Amino acid sequence: AQAGVVIVGAGPAGLVLGNLLLDRGIDCVILERRDRAAVEGRARAGFLAAHSVRVLTENGLAAGLLARGKTHTTCLFRSVRGQFTLDYGKLGLGEPHTVYPQQELVRDLIAEYLRRGGEIRFGAEAEEVAGEAGGEAAGEAGEGRVRVRVRGGADVTGRYVAGCDGHRGIGRAALTAHGTRTARRDHGVSWLAVLVAAPPSLEAVGYALHERGFAGHMARTAAVTRYYLQCPRGTDPADWSEDRIWTELAIRLRTDEFGPLRQGAVLEKAVVDLRSDVLESPGAGRLWLAGDAAGLISPSAAKGANLAVLQAELLARALEGALAHGDGTGLARYAADCLPRVWRAHEFSHWMSGLLHGPAGEDDEARYGRALQYARLESLRTSRTHQDFFAENYTGI
Ligand code: FAD
Question: Which intervals hold domain FAD-binding (predicted)?
Answer without folding.
Answer: 4-349
